Amino acid sequence: MSTPSDANPESGDHESGDHESGDTAGEFGPPTKDPWKSFRGVMAGTLILEAIVVLLALPVVAVVGGGLTAASAGFIIGLAVLMILGAGIQGKPWAMGFNVALQVILLFGFFVHPSIAGVAITFGIVWGYLVYLQRDIKRRMDKGLLPGQRD
């Protein structure tokens, strides 16, 4: 006998377990490989790469900008350190919010030098895509569409 949680709300079919869309709850298990493990690695790697790019902005600000001040150097180095430390917390449930907050802070680097805003916009696009991927993986996992969930 089906329970309401086993029902497919779109088709009204409560009997068949052979749905291609995978919207019934009891038909699939967790994926055989944890998709979040690799996704956390992608986020941590992106933060490390971003920290390197932000640190490479130091000579740009020093030569092209008005020179490095204690405030501008502190902003750039401090943000890079936060990014490196942030790479280690990607397993936390609030990690994506932390990553997006770093992007917003980096955008304020425009006041240090416009090239910092260019880095912020570029990596903001990357993080926007990662937010999309996170939602897509969650949606696919909930529907049972990931490899290994129906085996």
TrEMBL record:
Region Disordered, annotated ranges: 1-31
Residue ranges crossing the lipid bilayer per the database entry: 42-62, 68-87, 116-133
Keywords recorded for this protein, A-Z: Membrane, Transmembrane, Transmembrane helix
UniProt biased composition (Basic and acidic residues): 11-22
InterPro entries listed in its UniProt record: DUF4233
Pfam families: DUF4233
Top-level taxonomic group: Bacteria
Protein name: DUF4233 domain-containing protein
Source species of the chain: Rhodococcus baikonurensis
Lineage, uppermost ranks: Bacteria, Bacillati, Actinomycetota, Actinomycetes, Mycobacteriales
